[in-house]
Every structure is written in structure tokens, then in C-alpha cells.
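Suppose a colleague, Dr. K., hands you the sequence of a protein chain of 155 amino acids and asks what its three-dimensional shape might be. Before reaching for any lab equipment, you can write down a predicted structure in C-alpha cell form. Begin with the sequence itself:
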Amino acid sequence: METAEKPQQKGGIINYFQGATINNLVINGNMVKSGSDQFHNTCSQKKKLSSEQMVSALKLCGDYIWGNAAYSIAFCVCRDVYHMGDNASQYERILCERGIMIPAGTINTAMSRNQWLKYHVDNWEENGASDRALKLRDVFKEKVETLLIAAHKTA
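The predicted structure, expressed as C-alpha cells, is then:
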């Protein structure tokens, strides 16, 4: 009678995928980045954005805000780039507390009418975002970065 050799049991996450590497990481349904180098860069670039800085940056973008739905662009940038969370109602309350009045439900309505808002901000071009939305996204990110650099220098 032959005895079958029992395979070695290797535990832990390292051996779970049997040597496979992770090339794409999906968090909460949003593609973050592809490849391990880009993943490490994304994690190391987490920046803390305060609600005051966010609103200040929004006010600096006034020329690019065409209506209440445009505030959803900044919401998505805060969600995807500055890790402020995915709570549209909280975002609307923050705006209201800081003097930017938009009707409750504006962000969720904009997201239901514009499916590309559900994607990571880096993937909007290929998912049908308008030119004005892309411009506001880029200008808002630029203004936020300027404010974060200024805050870092004074800290």
C-alpha cells in the first residue's frame, strides 16, 4: 500500500496566492493604481486635508464652478486623492457650515446622473467626463496642493 505524501500546509497571506503578485488593487470598488510601485507611491502620498483648506481651495476655484453640481467634482477629488471619506451628506454639511450653501442631496444626485463620478478621478477621461469637469478637477487639485504646501511651510 502506497502512502500519499501529504502536501505541506503553508499558512498566511504570503502563500495564499501561491506566489502570485497583485498588479491591481481595488478599494471600495474604485481602481486606485496599477502595479506595486504605483501602489506604494499612492500610499506614501496620503495627505491630510482639513475641511477649512478644502473650502478655501473651492473658493479659489469660483471661476470654474458652473453650478451646484460642480461641487461634486471637489467631493470626488477629496474622496479619491485626499482620503476624506465617501460621505456626500457630511461633505454638504461641511460646505454649509463654511458658507457654501447647496441643497441637500446635490452630490448624490450629480453622481447618479453622471456615472463617471463613481470612478477614481484619474479615470474620468476614459469614462466620459466633460472638459469643464476635468478642468475643475485639475484646478481644484492645484489649489489644494498650494494650500497644503503653504501649511507645511508654516508648521
